[in-house]
Amino acid sequence: MDAEKASAADTSFFELFQIEPSVDIHLPSLEATYHRLSLKLHPDCNTHADLKTRLHSLEQTAQLNRAYATLSNPQRRALYLLKIYGINLEDSQNPLQAPLSFLNHMLELREQLQQASLSRQTDKLENLERFATEAMEKKLELGCQCLRDGLGHGPPEKLQQAALHLVCVRYWQRFLEDVECFQEELSS
Amino acid sequence: MSELLQIREPKKPSPPTQAVGIDLGTTHSLVATVAQGQPTCLVADEEDALLLPSVVHYSANGSVVVGKYAKQLASQFPEDTLSSVKRFMGKNRSDVDAMQLKTYRLAPGEGPLAFQVSGGPAVSPVEVSAEILRILKQRACAALSSKITQAVITVPAYFDNAQRQATQDAGKLAGLEVLRLLNEPTAAALAYGLQSKKQGCFVVFDLGGGTFDISILKLKEGIFEVKATAGDSALGGDDFDLSIAQALLQKWDIEVPTPFQKYVLLEAARQLKERLSHETKVEIRFEAHVAEITREDLRQWIAPFFKRIHFACKRALKDAGLAKEDIQAIVLVGGSTRMPCVQSWVEEIFGKPGLAEVDPEKVVAMGAAIQAQLLCGATKDSELLLLDVIPLSLGLETMGGMVEKLLLRNSTLPAKATQLFTTFQDGQSGMDIHVVQGEREMAKDCRSLAKFHLKGIPPMAAGLARVEVGFSVDANGLLSVEAHELATGIQQRVVVQPSHGLSEEDIEQMLKASIRHAQEDIFSRLLAEQQMEAKRMLAELSKQMGEHSECLSVEEASALSEAAKQLETLLETTQEAAKLRNAILALDNQAKNFTERIMNSSINSVLQGHSMSEF
After folding, report:
1. Dihedrals φ, ψ of B409, to 5°?
2. At the topology level of CATH, where does B16-192+359-381 sit?
């Protein structure tokens, strides 16, 4: 994807926070901007305004909240950046496949997960959780590194690589969600 | 779609009215206001008590008693004295099973959940809650010598959409404009944070009579930002009482047959639990049985609940992206946090003891009062803002019964999200939209919020139609959904209302009825209700007969008109509610075929459930 395409795409979340699209952002200043804008826009801070203003402020606040949720989370931020550069991983029409070896590994782990939950081994579940969390963080960092190299005028294949890493991150995330469901079942 | 978000009209300057904060609790309720800048709880019950027991007694003569006196009547009339109704808010019949030791009589048959009581028709949990709110409103009016019409009512953060809706309905039914449904832990954090003026990340650990919430908040320069919330809307001191009672029954190897015995045993269990907060061992008696119970016994009996609480705390920390070391302090809220055993759980989970600097039983009502003050416009726009979250993910059922989440749990309010869906059969003309709430992958494991059918998609090949579904959650945590087909602009909006919720008309009707209720005269109240019902029915019938004359033969139409005229005459002449009731039922019965035909003629099919096979 070239820079032209990037600029034409929707960069509004970054614009809203008045920062350049980037993998690494300074979280405390992002938060400070979020608070400042919330105090200005939030309907609860505009109880004296007329109805139209408050409806408008509601729309804007919802958008601000979505932008902050996206930019403040490294994984969502990376996915959003990829989208800006033309790779939309949420597009189900055009799914990107994870490598076969990775999928095999996932299958194996899922079997372990099933067994651990059937035999009610909470410590086993915790080990799997820890393992998956670390693996996910590692993949995310790899993805972010490729993104850093590929953004702007970097080589386009870097973006493809980033996308592949992020697809794997999603597999890990779903795995962790399942671990949580099993943990919840065991706790009640 | 924004007009669905129930934003209030701007205030006109009017005589001073005060908005109050109400903690509508499982075991007791409080009302508070802000006086001279300080949140203060008001007298809510007899003998200057601030805590109003959330107990409502329905007498055979039709009068309703709330609070301490109601509680005193409970041993004599266990079946007509309702407590802990908060547990039933927004619930279906099928949700209610594990209450085997409770003394309620559920009204038989299908339809919304209701309790049979003497002196009148069955009452729903919403109506019972409204009785409590009405008393709180009256007491607040008396204490402040001013008119109270607006209130912030607190709900457990983990309440789902149906439970929130039910609470809002109860408020309206009590004649209150509900400025906001405020999450209890957030309210507590507001009161605590303003008092202590501390900054940083805090945990609010709220274990009350019937619900458990944990919220993690970040306090920074006037912004109270909820980072994550988790909990269990059916876990609290009541469950401890039940466990204790069951353990005692087992210990003595006895069965408890009568409602009275159940009541006595549960009351003994509650007292045992409370006394063990101050003493290390306590003797308990029940009829001929005696036992000495230690703190250790109690700890073992309620140990199964620790797992659930631990899981919720762990999940909240994870969702907030924090470790327990990042937490500055744990604020304890709710009566059950007085138990030494619960305090030791808190320490075990977070590695430091919890704080109870502000009275754990009053702190929620005080926070609600502060928020009420901010929202009613009494203060100038201030640099104080609460940012709360949705407790449970919201999504749609897709192919194969899977859930596509549109808004993830812990999204900040107000929140909006849209998602595109497409048809999967050639020429598919409709699409079922099934809205669910919860974390599970399969729709059947989540809470179903609403089903509606988007009609009139123009025939095209599979995968070409573009249906955009939009979710909006307002500041009360209440959801509205809209769907439209992008090519044709066909659009449908739904404010998600549980099937067992009340419609606006229901509320209005009940409100009108409750004006008479103030006379405390059951006969005039019953009559007024029936008169209202008769009028409503006559108006509705004449409207439907005008609009759908094609559904009636000439003979049927004249017979119906004749019957309607009779009811009209009776309405003006009789003072007997029962007579009127019978006439209403008779007319209803006679009109049944007619109304069924109208229903079938598809006008109301929009909200009917359909199979997901067309999706």
Report:
1. -55, 150
2. Nucleotidyltransferase; domain 5 (3.30.420)
Q: Are B429 and B588 in contact (CB under 8 A)?
A: no
Give the percent of chain A with pLDDT over 90.
Answer: 48
Residue A55 is nearest to which of B2, B225, B415, comparing CB atoms?
B2
Q: Boundaries of CATH 2.60.34.10 in chain B?
A: 394-516
Best residue in B311, B373, B441, B446 for a mutation probing chain A (most A CBs within 10 Å): B311
**B280/chain A closest Cα distance in angstroms:** 28
Q: What is the rounded CA–CA span in Å between residue B150 and residue B69?
A: 27
**Cβ contact (<8 Å) for B7 and A65?**
no
CA pair distance A179, B61, nearest whole angstrom: 56
User: Is A103's pLDDT higher than 80?
Assistant: yes
Q: What is the pLDDT of residue B294?
A: 93
Q: Strand runs (DSSP E) across A51-159, as ranges? A: none
User: A15-32 pLDDT, tens per residue?
Assistant: 999 998 999 999 999 999
Q: Test A49 with B220 for CB contact under 8 angstroms.
A: no
Interface test with A, best of B416, B419, B439, B440 (most A CBs within 10 A): B416
Domain B394-516 sits in CATH 2.60.34.10: yes
Quote ipTM for the complex: 0.88
Determine the CATH number of domain B237-302.
3.90.640.10
Out of B7, B377, B440, the one facing A55 most closely (by C-beta) is: B7
d(Cα A25, Cα B220) in Å, to the nearest integer?
A: 20
- In this complex, which of A54, A69, A186 lies closest to B411 when CB atoms are compared? A69
pLDDT in tens, B158-204: 888 889 999 999 999 999 999 999 999 999 999 988 777 888 999 99
| Shortest Cα–Cα distance, B175 to chain A (Å) | 22
Comparing C-alpha atoms, which of B79, B76, B87 is closest to residue B116?
Answer: B79
The CATH number of the domain covering residues in B520-606: 1.20.1270.10
pLDDT of residue B402: 85
Alpha carbon distances (Å) from B114 to A4, B88, B111, B125: 63, 9, 9, 7
pLDDT given for residue B95 in this prediction: 72
| Alpha-carbon distance A55 to nearest alpha carbon in chain B (angstroms) | 7
The predicted model gives B409-434 an average pLDDT of 86
Question: Residue A39 and residue B9: Cβ atoms within 8 Å?
Answer: no
Nearest CA in chain A to B383: A39
d(CA B66, CA B139): 12
**CB within 8 A of B14, min separation 6: which ones?**
none
Q: Which residues of B are designated catalytic?
A: 23, 86, 184, 206
Tell me whether residues A45 and B413 touch, CB distance under 8 A: no
Q: How far is A39 from chain B (nearest CA, A)?
A: 7
Q: Where in chain B is the domain with CATH 3.30.420.40?
A: 16-192+359-381
List of chain B residues whose C-beta atoms are within 8 Å of the C-beta of residue A188: 307-308
Question: What number is the average pLDDT over the span B222-238?
Answer: 90
User: Which residues lie below 8 Å from residue A159, measured CB to CB, with a gap of 6+?
Assistant: A1, A82, A85, A87, A146, A147, A150, A151
